[in-house]
Each structure stands twice: as structure tokens, then as C-alpha cells.
Amino acid sequence: MSQGVRVAAVDEIQLTEPKRVEVSGVAVALVKDSAGVIHALGDTCTHGEISLSEGFVEDDTLECWAHGSRFSLRTGHPLNLPAYEPVPVFPVNIVGDEVFVDVQNPIVPDAASAEGGTA
Hints:
This protein has strands at about 5-10, 20-25, 25-30, 40, 55-60, 60-65, 70, 90, 90-95, 100.
């Protein structure tokens, strides 16, 4: 599996402040959760074509600012309506103090990890 593309330094990703990056033409939202883990999700809400990196982070979710759908940082599954389709989640590799994202190999969670979402 590829290490991915370097997208940021670890200290550029702030807790509760998503950061939008482009990786090989794919818009990605980088998010640091309350445990300090960095996640990479597709940056476009599946409900309204809204940038998720402009949304709100709470615990292990990213909320779309426009209509309030919350997405799991681990699985990409929506946890409430109006969104019902998941966003892609991409592998993140930390090498030293650099963040790499692999958009060529999205993480595909199994149905059991949907966390009670609406998908």
C-alpha cells in the first residue's frame, strides 16, 4: 500500500479546526479528533455539495455547517439526516512530523461499523 501524498505538517492540523487540502485532484478534509488522531475524509457533504472542512468537529464526528449532518471520522458514515450516503475515508500515515494521505486506497468500512448511522 502506498504511503500517500504529503499534505501537511502535523502541527498544521489543529484540534476541532478541519483543514481542506487537495490530493491528486481530490478535495480532502483533514481533522484532528479529541484524542489527537488525524483523519482524512472526502471534503464534500453527500447531501448538499458543501465543503465539510468548513464544518464543526465534535468528539469523533464532523458536522456539515449547512444542514447539520454529522459524519463519523472513522467510517465516513452519516450519523443523522439529511445526508444518507457516506463520505470516503482515506488512510493517513504520519512519518516524523509530516502527514501523508492515500486517496488511491480509500478505507471501506464493513456494515457493522456504520455506528447506527442512517446508511
